[in-house]
């Protein structure tokens, strides 16, 4: 494991290489200064940075992929569906609104279980 700092640019960064030669491929990611959005994507790496996502005081981890996509890791508002019967299948040709509501409620419950929703 090694830490490398890159000085001389306007965006300070730390590179962390993890792995052992011959056992694991060395993976690399770049950690950017808090609040700074990376402007480019290095090859074979993703970048991690912190940024407010919903106004001041809402800093959360952001990831920039090699392809330039931004992935935000934050928990959104709480939803409280009631009278939901777990439903994970439906016939798109004959579905009823109540069944769709159960499916949406099931999706919300599933996402709450894994921490996406509060």
Please explain how this structure is put together.
It is a single chain. With 118 residues, the chain is an alpha+beta fold. The chain folds into two domains: 2-72, no CATH class; 75-118, no CATH class. It is elongated, with a radius of gyration of 21 Å. Strands 1-2-3-4-5-6 form a six-stranded mixed beta sheet, with no helix packed on it. β1 (2-6) and β2 form a beta hairpin. It is built from one helix and six strands; from the N terminus they run ββββββα.
**Uncertain stretches:** 1-12, 20-26
- Walk across the major sheet and give the strand order: 1-2-3-4-5-6
Q: What is the tally of helical segments?
A: 1
How many β-strand runs? 6
Structural class: alpha+beta
As for the number of domains, it is 2
Rg, Cα atoms, Å: 21 Å
pLDDT averaged over residues:
74
List the helices and strands and how they pair.
Blueprint: E1 2-6, E2 13-18, E3 27-32, E4 45-52, E5 59-64, E6 70-72, H1 97-113
Notable characteristics:
2 domains, six-stranded mixed sheet, 1 helix, disordered N terminus
In short:
With 118 residues, the chain is an alpha+beta fold.
